[in-house]
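User: I'm putting together a small comparison set for a docking exercise, and I want a reference complex before I start. The sequence is below, and the ligand is NDP. Could you produce the 3D structure with the ligand included, as structure tokens?
Assistant: Of course. I'll restate your input first, then give the structure tokens for the complex.
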Amino acid sequence: MKSNKIEVVTEEAVQRAKTAIAGLKNLNCAEDDLFFQAMEEVLLSIIPLYLSDPKYKKNSIIRRLIHPDRVIKFKVEWMDDNNEIQVNMGYRVQFNNTLGPYKGGLRFHPSVNEGVLKFLGFEQILKNALTGLPIGGAKGGSDFDPKGKSDFEVMKFCSAFMRELHKYIGPRIDVPAGDIGVGAREIGYLFGEYKKITSSFDGVLTGKPFFFGGSRMRPEATGYGVVYFTEKMLELEQKEPLNGKICVVSGAGNVALHVIEKLYQLGAIPVTCSDSGGTIHDPRGVDIALLKELKEVQRVSLEEYIVQHPEARYIPVAEYPKDGHAVWHIPCYAAFPCATQNELTQGDAKALIQNGCMCVAEGANMPSRSEAIDLFIENKICFAPAKAANAGGVATSAFEMSQNAGMIRWTFEEVDQKLKETMVYICTEVANTAKEFSADGNYVVGANIAGFKRVADAMIAEGI
Ligand code: NDP
């Protein structure tokens, strides 16, 4: 591939761009640290594109892209099992609908606030653009914690949340899905309430259970997609495939479980998983059936794993390396962070590299800190950034929207085939874009430029 655009980028131009990006922190849309971290990573890597074509500056694309279209914020009042009234905050950040209806998950977790959702919504714009499907970017959620709540309490919270949210969503307007703390149970309750309020059986949420409009394979899609992406990246970078290789995975939720499952299907050996209390290291390979039972059925701590497998090791958070995470200190060929943001530090990245890790693929959103990513790139580790590697979930959500709109059903095999094709397409596009901009093998640059260009060009075409 010809690489002709980077020549216009001088060191001085890069410094000027960095100063301009730092200045954006003063905008009231960008004061939150997580959002700024996500935005800075994108803006630094699109410098070659931005400087190569004056139309982006002329059309003020950066300022237009980093301001969400709107941030909806509301109170959620609900009654717990002791008949006491509880109050939480609900949010929907509708970031950008240039390419299609707003699309992005709902997160229920005590750490949720406007800044977290702005970072996730911003990432979602570029991720959704990378899929090549007609979906815009959004994110939403609440500081409600489903952990420790009865099914009835979760149902009452979801109903109260939807009583407000339904005013702002619709199958052609904004189609939320799941994320941390929002799985099939929560989506079911949310969908039920939407239907009651509107009397309309719409494809207004994705990740629905199959028997009322969900797509086959949506639960598996994000995790399986991460592994499909990784396989393709290893092939393109002429590295050994995953078969027979030791892999480490963090998290024990939807994404982690399905990464582990697909790794087994490819003959790899995933030896770890983790939750917010600690890490399991099972050198023979994690017992996936037990993991699903503990996390999907019983919803208990991972510590329970060693009751059935005393030969495995449970490492509580208190015993983690200082400023790090136990998972990344276990020798492996490939690492898959699949829990949450900023869970992989610079020290963790050093440990992975020293222990011979060749590949890191992000299942969670922005799990690696910027300094960790810099180390991976410097050391030529195959690094798959979240917005490309975990786009299989939202792509399959878009497949669910298509099936709902056409009142049709695709088989598991049909969806799996489409998912595979999508991940191979994204990986190839990202690799080619990186090459085009003289950053061969740098999937961060490739993903950010390819995603940004698609949205920015469409914004220019649509006008203000
Ligand atoms: P789940 O709620 O199913 O699982 C999250 C897992 O991460 C749990 O094991 C949880 O442990 C752990 N976790 C969450 N927060 C923390 C924390 N602060 N510290 C340590 N562990 C934590 O979520 P998902 O698997 O759906 O999502 C995981 C990541 O993947 C998120 O970053 C999400 O945004 C991203 N993602 C998800 C998609 C999807 O389709 N589900 C699509 C694309 C990205 P515990 O149960 O103890 O809290």
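The longest helix spans residues 412-436. The chain has 18 helices and 13 strands.
User: Thanks, that's exactly what I needed.
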